[in-house]
Amino acid sequence: MGSVRSRRAPRPLDDRTLRELALAYVGRFATTRSKLQQYLRRKVRERGWSGQTEPEIAAIAEAFADQGYIDDSSFALAKAQSLTARGYGPRRVVDSLRRAGVAGDDGSAAIEHSEDQAVAAALRFAERRRFGPFATVPTKDLRQREKALGAMIRAGHSFALARAILDWPVEAPLDLGEIADRARRSAA
Predict the structure, then answer these.
(1) Could you say which of 22, 115, 154, 164 would form a disulfide bridge with 183 (CB–CB 3.0 to 4.6 Å)?
(2) Phi/psi zone of residue 68: left (φ > 0), alpha (ψ -120 to 50 degrees), beta?
(3) Terminus-to-terminus CA distance in the chain, angstroms?
(4) Which residues are CB-neighbours of 4 under 8 A, at least 6 positions away?
(5) 111, 94 in Cβ contact below 8 A?
């Protein structure tokens, strides 16, 4: 007969082990203050706490930010660049930053980047999904057009920009400026 190993419960955390966990986490993942705090709270909940006072989770996150281990604005910009490169729009970028706990001025450069790249990102998304000017044949079916429009909106693009791209003729050369102008005119 085989032996069955019993798992011992992990020891409760203290100040030193909590900081070690935090350091290992930021060494492995790009993160924000908020995400680090969520991670540490979860670990304290799972393993328990043996310290004399309550764990100073917010203080650990702030200390790591002061030391440069965490930079919310750099995280936000990298996230925005990644999302726009994959074809996602400004609204999706803002939602992603909010979920990551990036607030205030830390996200301003990222939001500005996503707004500057909105047309190019929408075109990348349309190309990947073969919508609008990237379709193999022009779409005449109203249901297919509505599905494409819904997909672009869920990807974070404005209704006006999505419509401008879907209305662009398949055989016409792309003109980012003209697409942006059409979207602005239809939004107004």
Answers:
(1) 164
(2) left
(3) 77
(4) none
(5) yes
How open is the CA angle 29-33-39, to the nearest 5 degrees? 60
Sequence-distant (6+) residues with CB within 8 A of 145 are 139, 166
Residue 52 CB-density burial (10 A; 0-12 exposed, 13-18 middle, 19+ buried): exposed
Whole-number pLDDT of residue 108 = 95
CA distances from 119 to 80, 139, 152 (A): 14, 21, 12
DSSP letters along 60-71, please?
HHHHHHHTTS--
Please name the amino acid found at residue 119.
V
What's the CA dihedral at 102, 108, 110, 115 to 10 degrees? 130
Dig out the tokens for 151 from the structure. 């997909």
Q: Going residue by residue through the chain (188 aa), what tens digit of pLDDT does each one get?
A: 556 666 777 889 999 999 999 999 999 999 999 999 999 999 999 999 997 889 999 999 999 999 999 999 999 999 999 999 999 999 999 999 999 999 889 999 999 999 999 999 999 999 999 998 998 877 778 899 999 999 999 999 999 999 999 998 888 888 889 999 989 998 87
Write out the two tokens for 129: 């999904």
